[in-house]
Write a structure and sequence with these properties.
Length: 135
């Protein structure tokens, strides 16, 4: 028999990158997005996660990581109209691309001398903000 004191605890599976849940939090707190857009994107993230039968915490928030799984979803199995599922897929794609762009901008703000908010274009110390903010 093995001693339970020597057992290694099993951990929950986690991601080493942002998840759907992280994207949802960012979308909820985005003041620059219209309320209607936030609502549609959040609903679509939830519905696609439900259709994939996975919790939002373990689905990567990168379109390239999920596009094939999302593409395999069929409206009959999901229990939705074809147009509704197509709208959810499109909303998730746009939401994840927005989230990726927002994360790049926030990361790039560290290169600026006086970052404010989550964009550094106005505070970039050089004349070419694209060069400054692309890192």
């Amino acid at each position: 028999m093995t001693d339970t004191n020597d057992a290694v605890p099993v951990t929950e599976p986690g991601l080493l990158e942002p998840s759907f849940a992280d994207a949802a939090k960012a979308i909820e707190s985005a003041a620059d997005l219209p309320a209607r857009t936030r609502s549609h994107w959040l609903c679509s993230l939830r519905q696609i996660a439900k259709a994939m039968d996975k919790p939002m915490e373990i689905i990567p928030a990168r379109w390239t990581a999920i596009r094939f799984a999302v593409g395999r979803l069929h409206h009959a199995r999901v229990g939705a109209n074809a147009k509704t599922l197509a709208n959810h897929k499109s909303n998730v794609r746009v939401a994840l691309l927005w989230f990726a762009a927002m994360r790049r901008t926030c990361r790039a703000a560290a290169c600026c001398s006086r970052p404010t908010g989550n964009t550094c274009v106005t505070n970039c110390p050089t004349d070419e903000p694209a060069r400054c903010c692309r890192r």
